[in-house]
Amino acid sequence: MIGLYIRASEEFAVVGVRDSLVVDILKEKLDIDVVTTTIAGSELAGAMVSANSKGIVVCSHASSKEINILSKIAEVHVLDTNMTCLGNVICINDKGAIVHPEAHEKIENVLRDKLDVEVMRGTVGGIKTVGMAAAVTNRGGLVHPNANDWEIRKIERCLGISVERGTVNFGQDMVGAGLVANSKGYIAGDDTTGFEVGIVEQALGFV
Q1: pTM
Q2: Are 97 and 123 in contact (CB under 8 A)?
Q3: How many structural domains compose the chain?
Q4: Adjacent-strand bridge partners of 97
């Protein structure tokens, strides 16, 4: 479930657990800067943080110390919202974002105004926590295997990419929880099969 602990963009990653091996792998495979910090006291940085190359969005429960650490790698935007797990409810790259269909308008506004993306509400495979039901980059994306054609067309139109249905970790359908990627590389959970890797690499534009 590495996607719960790591949030990556084209330029940087936030890691919620202190693990030098993970940091080294991210730097090598994704060619990015990395910071390690909890978010609102939680190690689940991948679930708590949303980000693209333009900046980071976190909830107002994040401490000043955590925000200061994040600000070393990107501009940080703090949102006072009941949806504290912003990484769960936002699926974003550098062009567009799909957000939870019940997300507050202020979430849409900060993504549009500060992270400079087109924003659309939607689901992935009927799931509202779109940030965990998909893993996207500027080159492509992997989405929940139950995503329908209408959802896929919306994602592709808004984010400007092609996506594929698939799984990771030997059948895990919440692919955003088991895959961390940008346009330069990816890391997936240990249980991901060779067949799944083939789909991941095709979906993310590495083949």
Answers
A1: 0.96
A2: no
A3: 1
A4: 92, 119
